[in-house]
Amino acid sequence: MFFRRVAFLLFILILSARLAAAQTKTVAERLGYPADAKLLIIHADDLAIAHSEDAASFEALDKGAVTSASIIVPGPWLTEVADYAKTHPDADLGLHLALTSEWKTFRWGSVESKDKVPSLLDSAGALWPLTENVAKNVKSQEVEKEYRAQIERALAMGIRPTHLDTHMGSALSTPEILAVYVKIAHEYHLPILAPRIPGDPLKLSALLNEKDVLVDSVTIANPSVQAGKWKEFYLDAVKNMKTGLNEIIVHLGHDDAELQAVMVDHPDYGSAWRQRDFDVVSSLEVKKAIQDNHIVLIHWRDLQKLVQ
Amino acid sequence: MFFRRVAFLLFILILSARLAAAQTKTVAERLGYPADAKLLIIHADDLAIAHSEDAASFEALDKGAVTSASIIVPGPWLTEVADYAKTHPDADLGLHLALTSEWKTFRWGSVESKDKVPSLLDSAGALWPLTENVAKNVKSQEVEKEYRAQIERALAMGIRPTHLDTHMGSALSTPEILAVYVKIAHEYHLPILAPRIPGDPLKLSALLNEKDVLVDSVTIANPSVQAGKWKEFYLDAVKNMKTGLNEIIVHLGHDDAELQAVMVDHPDYGSAWRQRDFDVVSSLEVKKAIQDNHIVLIHWRDLQKLVQ
Questions:
Q1: Which of A105-119, B140-154, B202-216, B228-242 has the least mean pLDDT?
Q2: Chain A residues with beta carbon closer than 8 angstroms to that of B123
Q3: By CB atoms within 10 Å of each CB, which of A21, A211, A224, B82 scores lowest?
Q4: Reported pTM
Q5: A55 to B79: CB separation less than 8 angstroms, yes or no
Q6: In this predicted model, what pLDDT tens digit does every residue of A13-23 receive, in sequence order?
Q7: Which chain B residues touch A if contact means CB-CB below 8 Å?
C-alpha cells in the first residue's frame, strides 16, 4: 500500500513538473529553437472564394512567399483548392472557418443544411455579411454544427488541415462562439489562431490547455495604410518584429475582372489591395528583410505537432 | 330550367369554340403576327455562374444581341444578376432551373435546405454533375421542392422571371421531372422551354393546357461545329429558319482567366466556345441575316402574356 501511495505521488509530481515545463517553455523552445527566436508565419487568407484569389495564393505558396494559407470551405472554388491540396501534400493549408459572406454581388451560404442553422443566414440565404450581424444573431449551438460541417466537408474533399482560423474574426466575436472554436480545435487536435488580448475579455485563457499555442503578435494591413506605403508597412513590421510567435496575415489576388467584380464597391481588402499584398510578399526586399532580421519562418504544421 | 339548360349548352359551345380557336391559332397569330411569321428568341443561358458569363450576357442584352436570358439561381453570382434585373426592369430574364453543377473545380449546391433534397446532391454536397445522374438518382418530390426554392429565392431577390427553362435539359430527363416542371410553370403562370419531340415519348402533350406554348425549333451549337465555322453555323440556322416559334440558345462569356478556370478540361461549352458565341451574336452579319430573312425577334415576355 505504501509503495502504491509513493508511486502515485511520484506520478503526480512528474506530471506537475511536465505541465509546468510545458507552460513555461516558449513556443520557440517547444519547437527546438532558442527561447528568444523570432518566429514568423506569413499567412494567406480566403482561399476558395475566387479563382483569382486561389491562383495568386497557390503561386505564393509554391515560391515560399507565404508559408501557410487557409480555406473558406463554403466558397464555391473549394474543389479547385482541394485539387491543389491533393497535388501539393506539403502545402500548409488550414480552414478559415467562416460565419460571414461579405461581398456585395457574390455570396455563399452554410455548409450545414440550411434548416439546421437558420440563425447563421440572412434573408438571401447566405451567411451574414458582417461580424456584427454574427455577434448579434447566431446561436452558438448552430455555430458548432456549421464549424463541424465545414471541417468534415474539407476532410471529405481530401484536405488535411494543419490549423483553424477565423474569417473576419467572427470566432472571437462573443465568448460563446470562442468557446465553440476552442472546443472544436481540441477535438480535431488542430492549433487555432487566437491572439493574446490584454485583459483577456473573452476569457480565452480559461478555455486553453497546456498544449495550446497563442500567437504573440498579428500584423495585418488596414485602411489607414496608403497604397504607396504598402511595402514600407510590411518592411517595418518585419524590421520591428519581436521575439515570440508572429503572424503576418495577407490577402492575395490578382487585380483582374473577376476579383474586381467580387469586391465591387469595397476598396478595403479589395482587388487592388490583394494585388498589392501579392506584389509585396513576392518581393525580394521582404525576403531580404526576413533574413537580415534573423527571423525564422515556420508553418502551422509545426504548431500542429505541439497540440497532438 | 329550360333556359338554364340552353344557357349552359351555349356556354359550353362558346368555351369549346374558344379552346379550338386557341389550339388552332399559331403562336404568331396569338401574338398578332401573320400566321406564317418566323419568330425568333435569341437566348443566353447560364447567368449567375460566373462574372465573365454575366458581363458578356448583360452586354449582349443591352445591345439587343440576345433578346432573352435565364439565370442559374444556385449560382454564386445571383446577387450580381439580381442587381442587373432591378436596374434593367425591361430585361427579359427567366430562370434556368438547375439540377446539375457540371464544372470540375467550381460547384454549387441546392437552394433548398440540403436535408430536404438529399437525392439531388452528390458526395461533395453539390448538385449532380451530369443529367444522367439526375435521371438515375433524384426523387421527383425533391425536384419539386428545389424548383420551388429556386423560384422563391429569385422572387425574394427582386427578380421577376418571364419564363422557365432547364439547365442541361434535366427537366426533360424523365417523365416524372417533366411533370413537375410543367406543374410548377402552370402554378406561376410562366411559359416554359419545351420542344416538340416526335412521338412525344415523355407524354408532354398530356400535361399541357390550351394556353401553353411549344417551341417549334431549337438551335444550339454542338461539339461537331468547328471553331472556324462558328458564324457559318448560326448564319445557316438564320437563313434556313422556318415559320413558327424558333429559339437560338447561346452561352456567352469572355475567354478570360475566370471562365477558363470554371470550365477547365471542358472544351465543350467552355470559355473559348462562349467567347465565340458572344462574338457571333454581336456580329453585324447575324443582325443583317435576321433582317434579310424577315425574322421577327420576340421575347419570352411576349409568350408570358399568352399563358396568363
A1: B202-216
A2: 156
A3: A224
A4: 0.90
A5: no
A6: 444 444 444 45
A7: 50-52, 54-55, 76-80, 83, 104-109, 111-116, 123-125, 153, 156-157, 254, 256-258, 261-262
